[in-house]
Predict the structure of Molybdopterin molybdenumtransferase.
Amino acid sequence: MNPLRNDCFALPPGVNWTPVEEALERLRSRLHPVVGMERSVPLSQVSGRILANDVYAPRAHPPSSNSAVDGYAFAGPLTEVPCAMPLVDGRSAAGEPYMEHVPEGHVIRILTGAVIPAGTDTVVLEEDCEVIDGQLHLHGTLKAGANLRKTGEDIKAQDKILTASTRLTPTQISVLASVGVESVDVYQRLRVGVLSTGDEVKPVGSAVTDWQIYDANLPMLSALVVQLGYELVNLGHVLDRAEDVKAALESGAERCDLILTSGGISAGDEDHVSKTLKAHGDISNWRIAIKPGRPLALAMFQGTPVVGLPGNPVAAWVCALRFGAPAMALLAGSGWFEPQAYSMPANFHKNKKPGRSEMLRARIRDGQVEVFGSEGSGRVTGLAWSEGLVELNESAQQIEPGTPVRFIPYGSFGL
Ligand SMILES: Nc1nc2c(c(=O)[nH]1)N[C@H]1C(S)=C(S)[C@@H](COP(=O)(O)OP(=O)(O)OC[C@H]3O[C@@H](n4cnc5c(N)ncnc54)[C@H](O)[C@@H]3O)O[C@H]1N2
Ligand code: MOO
């Protein structure tokens, strides 16, 4: 794999505010997959992994024509009713096919999933007929091929069933298994480091005083990384000391393909993440025209990209999803994505400043988008309450109930 360029996030001179779309486009165009391949990984271990190659079906699905119902098979169509047909001795059950030819004008007992015997091509549902003295009595007409699942109607042998870069879901694993694929080549898991910073921040479980807060971001970002299917590298928490931040980033750069940091990236006296990245890496402190998350740092540190997230938990979450998730997907081999948004009517009022995007914590109720009561960037309850984000673009200003807004469910980010 090619290494990433050190100046890959640099902004052109003189550029200050970066619109969201431009920031996303810059990320998309400067990053590329950095992971190697793991060959022949068994299906039991591929959930959430990313396919490295296209997969072709070694056999058809279904492999032979079979019945979709419990009933009786005969040669269709059936156009003249009522009628009666003699029942042959024997039956076709799933896993126990009837190997002989069914004579013309005869019917045979067949069960769901059983191979359709030679001489038949149509199945009548058992509820729609009755057997009296060895004769099957039918009252309704049937088209030829009724209640039949034809060979290869779902997948033909050699069909391409999945494409490279697909992140494997349980349902896709079922498709692989259905045609007998035992193992696939996947990309190695992207190793994502998570580092939390701040003198006031204490890991959950430690003793705290009133001027200290528990670390909400490290557990949140760690859970995000795991849920997105990446390998979590816990870089822990460091104080706002340049040498500690540097040591943690060095350790991360050795072990990770990307590092997410929390806090210390705006321009304050104690913003040691941005200072360290400036002193030892190649940073572009992007002032993105977005609320929350205005300060977002993108940097290369010893060859490893660093996404410096703001400390406020809401801003950290929004930026991790809007910028981090597509960037990680690209590095991991599943490709850049633009999250699927749905246009839905708002059920809220909002006056918004033009010139910046805003992301509001949101959810859908009764076909309308509601937003959390407070936009405070430290309000973690709004994160737990929300099921997605509303993205208001730069030009949006006045939102009234009924105004269509872009709702992005968390599922659209891969969660
Ligand atoms: N003069 C300016 N001040 C600030 C600006 C600005 O543009 N000019 N931007 C504000 C915005 S917007 C944000 S967001 C923050 C981002 O600052 P930092 O990334 O440097 O974050 P910190 O100052 O370290 O922390 C901000 C806030 O979040 C709390 N925090 C930090 N880490 C955690 C954690 N792991 N768990 C929970 N809460 C955390 C921290 O205590 C602060 O309250 O800067 C504004 N200021
Ligand atoms: O990113 Mo800050 O949280 O906009 O308030």
